[in-house]
C-alpha cells in the first residue's frame, strides 16, 4: 500500500463498506449475510415489465429537459459553470451561483466531495453510515440554499402603472422559474402573471471543444435579457452583485481588510476584489487571491459597498451608488447596474462575468504531485482575477459566440434531447474540483471529487469524452504521466496512479494502450505516435507478457478496478488485453514495425480463439479459476459480470475490427440484460446487501455482478470486503454496456439503460449533473460519451484523413454533431429516392480528409458517387463492400469553417 495517500480500496476497507471490526473479523449484519453459506438467491426478474410505448418514446426527438419551480424541481440543481480545472462553481435551478468550491480545500478525507458529510441509509436490513465516497450525496443530495458560500445575484426594477416593482432573480420572487440546460449552457427563464417583463438568464463558462486553453478560464459568464411583454414603454433597471470572496475562509477579524475597487475596461465596468493583509499565514492561505465582477459592453454604475438587504428600489438610484474604493473587515458586496427605456416588444441585454484567481495550492496536494508546487495553469496564464476579466472582455464576443455555437451544434440533431443531455453531461466533471491542471500543463485528477488520487488508469480509461472533446489533455496525460512520471522504463509497466502508487493495474495498462491509439487517431498527424512509439511498444510488451502460458489470455494476478487482485483467466481482463493488442497491431503497422505487428496479431488470434472456447459457457463469458489456487480468493467465476465483453466495447470506440465473435458478444450482452438489469433495484439490494447506494429502491439499473445459477459461494471461498461492489449500480460501467448495446444493434436495451441512469438523476430527486461513484462527479461516468459515438457509428483517424458514419436509427434523415482533430461541426445524411446525400458542415476549425465511409441505404448497387466542396466538384473514386461505401478523394481535402462537403451516392 502506498503510504503517500489513502486510496479508495484502503479507505473503504477501513471506513466505508466495513466497520473498524474488519481487523478482528467481526462483520456487521450485512457482511454476515453476504458470507453466509446460504448465499441469497438471484431475484432479478427476466421480464423487465417495460411499457412498450414508453420504450418506443425513447427514440423520439422530444424536447430539451426543463425543470420547473412549480414542480419543486430546482433545489438540487448544480450545473458546473466554471472553467475546466478551476474548482467547482454551480449554477442553481433559479440561476444563482452556489457551492464556490474554488478555494483549493477539496481533498481526501474530511473535505472530499461537494458536501462533506456522513448520512444514514437504511439498506433494507440495517441503518448504515454512508460517507461521501460511499454515496452520501446520492442518498441526500446537496441543497443549493444550504451551500451559498458567497452572496451573488441579480435584481430587476420596473415602474409599472406608477408603481415601482423590484424582483430578484430567485425562485421566491417569480410565479414560475424554468431551468433548461444542455451542458455547458444553462437557460433560466423567470415569469409572473401581471408583470410585463419576462427575464432570461444564460449561464456558462467559455467552453470550446478542441481549445482546452479558452475553455479553462476561472470564470462564469451570465447573460441576462429582459423582454417587455407589455403594451406600454417601461423604465427598467438591472442590478447585479457579487460578494468579495477573497480569504473567505481565513480572513477573520483583525487579520486584514477586504477591498473593492472600481476598474474600467474597454466599454465595460468592473469591480476588483482583494484582501489586504500583512499576515503571511493569511496571505499564503489556499483562499488567498482575487476576484473580479464585470458588466461587459455597458458603462454601468458601480457600488463597491452594497447594502442593506433585501434589494429595494433605492439601490438602483444613481445617487445611492458609491463608486469610491472601499475596505471592510468582514462581508463586502459590490454591485454593477444600469437603466434603460424599454419599448413594448423590445429587450434589454446585460452581459456579466465573475472571475476568480486562487493560485495557492493545497499543501497536501503539493505532497502528492510535485508539479503542483508551481501553482495552477490558470495562475501561470493570468496574474490575477483582473487579468482574467480583461481577457474575457477583450475576447467576449468570440468566447461567448463560440460556446453558444457549440451548444447549438450539439443540440442540432435528430437524436433525442434527453439522450444528448445524458451522454454529454459528464464532461462537466472537468469543470469541478475533481481535476487540476498545473503550471507546466500537466493534467491531474481524482477519481471523484477529492477521493482517490492520481488520475487512476483503471478508472479514467473508461472516460471516452475527454479524448474526443479536448484531445490535447489526453495526449498530455499520456506523455507527461503514463509515459512519463508513471512509466517504468525497465519493464514498460504504467503505474496506475503514477507517483501516488507503486504498481501497475492490468486493466489500466490495457485501457491505456487503447487510449494511445485513440489519442493518435484524434491527432492531425502522426507526430504523437512517432514520438512516443518506443515507450508505447514497451507498454504493450509489458501487457503481452502477463500471459504466462502463451494462450493469449492474461493470467498474471494484478490489481484491477474493483480494487482486488484476481487470479485465473478473467473474461473482461482477457478481452480488454486482446483489444489492446489489436490496437498495438494497428499502431505497429502504421509504424511499419512488421515484426511486432505480427506478435500482436498472433496474440489477438490466440486470445480470441481461447477466450471464446474456454471462457464462454454457452450463455456468457466467465472467469476461469487459477489451476492451483482454484476459487480460494475473490473473483467473478461463473457469475454474470458487467464488463465481461468490455474489450469488444472498447474496440468499437476506436474503429478496430472485431476482437470477439459477434454472436457470442451479443449473447453475453443479452445475459447482462436478462440477469443484471432491472427496472427496480429495490428487491435485489434488499437481499444482496453490502453495496453502496448508487441506485435506490424504485430506480432502475444494471447490477455489477450477479449469480444467476444460484451457486453457493459464487465469488470465492475467502471473505473479502470488495464483494460489496458486486451488488451496486455504478453508472460508468452501465454507460460502457449501453455503448456496447448500441454498437451491436441492441438499440432499445441501450436507450432503456441510458434512460434509467438519466431518470435516476432527475432534478426532483438529486443533481442531474452529478453522477456519483466513490465521491461526486466520478470520472468513469464520462464513458457516457461512448454511447453517443456508437449511436452515430462514428469512426475517425486524423493522420489518415479518415471519417465514417453509420447511424443506428433515423438513417434516412439523420443529423448529429461530430468532433475531429482540428475541427467540429454537423453531419447530416438523407435518402431521397435512389440517392443518399451526406453533408459535413464544418462550424469550427479545419477538417482534413482523404477517405470517407458511409453505409449504403437500400438494396440497389451503387452506380456513382460525387463529392462537392463549396460548389466545387472534387475528383474522387469509390469502393463498395457489402453495405459500406468508401469514397477516396484524389487530393487531401481541407474543409474550412462554414464550408459544406457534400457526398452524393446514387
Automatic annotation (TrEMBL):
Gene3D superfamilies: 1.50.10.10. Pfam families: DUF608, Glyco_hydr_116N. One of its GO terms (molecular function) is beta-glucosidase activity. GO terms for biological process: carbohydrate metabolic process. Residues 78-388 form the Glycosyl-hydrolase family 116 N-terminal domain. InterPro entries: 6-hairpin_glycosidase_sf, 6hp_glycosidase-like_sf, GH116_catalytic, GH116_N, Non-lysos_glucosylceramidase, TAT_signal, TAT_signal_bac_arc. Residues 507-784 form the Glycosyl-hydrolase family 116 catalytic region domain. This is Twin-arginine translocation signal domain-containing protein. It comes from Pedobacter frigoris.
